[in-house]
Amino acid sequence: MKRWIKWMTGAAFVLGMGVAGAAEVLLGAGDVVKLSVYGSPDLSIETRVSESGHITFPLLGQVEVGGLSVAAAEKKIAGQLEKGGYIKRAQVNMLVTTLASQQVSVLGQVNRPGRYPVEGRRKVLDMLALAGGIHGDGGDMISLVRTRDGETTRETIDVVDMVRKGELDRDYEVAGGDIIFVERAPRAYVTGEVSRPGPFRLERGMTVQQAISAGGGLSPRGSDNGIKVTRRDPSGKPVTLDAQAGDAVQVDDVIVVRESWF
Known about the structure:
By secondary structure, the protein is an alpha+beta fold. It has 3 domains: 32-98, wza like fold (2-Layer Sandwich); 102-184, Outer membrane lipoprotein wza domain like (Outer membrane lipoprotein wza fold like), CATH 3.10.560.10; 187-257, Outer membrane lipoprotein wza fold like (Roll). It is built from 5 helices and 15 strands. It has helices spanning 2-19, 70-83, 124-130, 159-164, 208-214, and strands at 32-37, 40-48, 54-57, 61-64, 92-98, 103-108, 114-117, 138-148, 151-158, 179-184, 187-192, 198-201, 228-232, 238-242, 254-257. The strands form 4 sheets. A 5-stranded mixed β-sheet has the order 7-6-10-8-9. Helix 1 (2-19) crosses helix 3 (124-130). The longest helix has 18 residues, at 2-19. The chain is rod-shaped. The two termini are 37 Å apart. The model is unreliable at 1-23 (pLDDT under 50).
């Protein structure tokens, strides 16, 4: 599983390199920009886009730039300078120094959790690569929380299944403000006469025999007869069942290996 996660991270990085810069960045609240006007050094400023999407510019006062590309914002400011009679054929240059609005939070079981900029078109796999990939304790299931048109939704993505099948069209494009959360891998427990009793990572389709192997195998006194598993029924009540080596293990199962009588 760990080798697979490393491969998936590398694949995501390569894919991300291919799409970066494919779309224009739109200005938003918190972005910091430097502005200059050719031939008018007194109009050079550095300012932050307000929560309402405005900047304060000399001579013009409040100018709404939220949701505009850099080129569109330059054109708008130049047009207002010309319309106001301040400058003829104004040439405005804007440089984004901090892209705070276009960031995605990557949290949970990743190697470098934090906020990462969305540069061009990015998808979930791209952002996971930026965050250093999925941690060894990370699971296959990832949650994507995003707000579009005022509505917040949560998508669940099985990234390992998606990459294994080569169905990358199932990946989601992200935007500023989105949250990616990598869940912890499901666990079960093995106790009794095994070499390493305790919790273990529950892999897909894992059997009781494989769970015992994850616990280091039988101890010198352990027996593969009379194995029990305790799990919760649909009502949440714990029940103890006889288990065979080939039985499937479920999340939070407790497998008990008994001592051999011989």
